Amino acid sequence: MSDNPYSTPTADLQLDDHGNPIQSRLWSARGRLSVMTFLAHSLILSIVSSLLMGVSVFSTFYGTETEAALSGAPGFGMFGLVFVVVVSVLSTWIQVVMMIKRFHDRNMVGWWVLTVFIIIGLIFLVLPGKKTPNRFGGFRAPKTWEFVLGVIAILIYVAYFGAMIFGITMGSDISEF
């Protein structure tokens, strides 16, 4: 430590407050994940949650509690559905936490995770539907004014998000331009 009171403070970011190496916890959004660690953990999480949900869904639809009691089938009924929901929520939470840590590795705040969901949502909303009838009804072609306003809306959204990203990346240095 320097005797200069105006020197920049220093800290060993590899150690916690007690001098122990930092351990990244699965449930915590603190810390960082490298690209390969993120990909490896995402793959493991996908495989484990898919296996757990697959077994649960199979056993749930194999029979209800009543049918299982009468026929001897190993169905879990409502328990299986609750189990699927719990596994889905937990795996989503862990994936979001890992994404936050990935953003931390890029020296970005974890709130950037919201952009991932916004972008996915926007892509889903602007993908065209099928032109054939489906179970929700027949295809409805947009009217001319709807099409024009839709194109204008897309241009406004692109300009808005572009300006937002430009403002975030430039930060307070925007006055230099």
Structure description:
Helices cover 59% and strands 0% of the residues. It is built from five helices and no strands. The protein has helices spanning 35-62, 65-71, 78-105, 113-126, 144-170. α1 (35-62) runs antiparallel to α3 (78-105). Residues 69-73 and 172-177 have low confidence and may be disordered.
Sequence-ordered SSE layout with sheet pairings:
Elements: H1 35-62, H2 65-71, H3 78-105, H4 113-126, H5 144-170
Oligomer: single chain
Coarse shape: flat
The structural class is mainly alpha
Order of helices and strands: HHHHH
Level of helix content?
55-70%
Report low-confidence residues grouped into runs of 5 or more. 69-73, 172-177
The average pLDDT value, as a whole number, equals 75
What's the helix count? 5
Outline the biggest β-sheet: none
Give the amount of beta strand, in percent.
Answer: under 5%
**Quick one: how many beta strands?**
0
| Distance, first to last CA | 39 Å
Radius of gyration: 25 Å
